[in-house]
Amino acid sequence: MKDIKKTYSTILDDNFPNEMTITFGDQKLHYRKKIWKINDDGVQVERGLRYGENPSQEAAMYELVNGNLLLAGCEFIGHGNSLVSGIDENMLIQFGKHPGKINLTDIDNSLNILKYLMDKTAAVIVKHNNPCGVAYAPTIAEAFNKAYRADRIAAFGGCLALNKVCDKATAELINNYYLEVVVAPEYDGEAINILKNKKNLRIVKIPRIDRLADFRNAVFPDFKSLIDGGIIVQQSSTTKIRSKDDLLPAETEYKGEKYSIERKPTDREFDDMLFGWYVEQGVTSNSVLYVKDGVTVGIGTGEQDRVGVAEIAIYKACTKYADLVCYDRYGISYKELTLSIQKGERNISDKNMIDEETAAAKGGLKGAVAISDAFFPFRDGVDIIIEHGISAILQPGGSIRDFESIQACNEANPKVTMMFTGERAFKH
Q: Within a 10 A sphere around the Cβ of 268, how many other Cβ atoms?
């Protein structure tokens, strides 16, 4: 039988050309394949991507080196502004197992979220191109700690991106866990030495992270290749939401009757609405997520129906809450605790106390803000959210049944507030 483990240590040669040119009418974009010089057991070799999404897939990354594109009235990002595709040997402080496609797309999506969070100190952990923990905090070490503890199960083997210098305190925290990639604008000397204790960790420096806010309004050609060889190209998504003044009070008219939300958001709820909407820009649709005090609580991704994804995010929040309580109390995961009880090694009362504490706190959802990337077609999703203690909801609005969602919020005790973005945030 083939040794599956060996496939993950395989490095594929790719047969993609070194250069690529794309022509849009009379405009041309010139790309160059990214190849790194890597020290492999004392021998310097040249490598492109390790492999694609799976070890059997060849892959290549190209950097735009010449040309600008004006398409559909928008000027796309031109050469000289590279982020991920511009990573060179100097920026790969430690190659670890040198990067494959998933590592780089995880970095890219973490930066896609971070670009909206540059006004504060923030950390983003991405796994399989979806955020699993995002947090604001006064220091970068606290931001990482909060982001990791938001979902320490999913964060295992994830990609961490920081928008501030990775210092000694942050590196020491990171060193306690298993991550695949760490990305920061800079590292202090002690931080590098600490992180290098993890030999397989990819340590990446992207100095342009401190200019990420410049990319908020920039758009690029977003390509989707089809099974028949066709290509769909679209402008990349951006959000017009910059402050609470860009949000709209939930109100609508149905059959001649007007419906308006009765309670306005508090300052904290406004802050969490903005934070959550920015995180939402990097979440696969359909999605609903919950945030509280600048930290993600539960993130539901990629579900086909909105009430289902609202329920999944609640389930995840409760699961992660119970696991974190268990880990803090006993130093083991909730699953390990359950197994040890089944083996007769621990008392069922240990688990019952955690379950009771999780239920009382509703998985940390009390007072949280719900964010939805598209409108609620029925009030059932809103009812489920309210039932679990959420105090505020942000959604695009625009459903013919918006009035039902507004009624659900006004009928709640205590009343739940709701705002509209006036824009959708689908990501596929």
A: 15
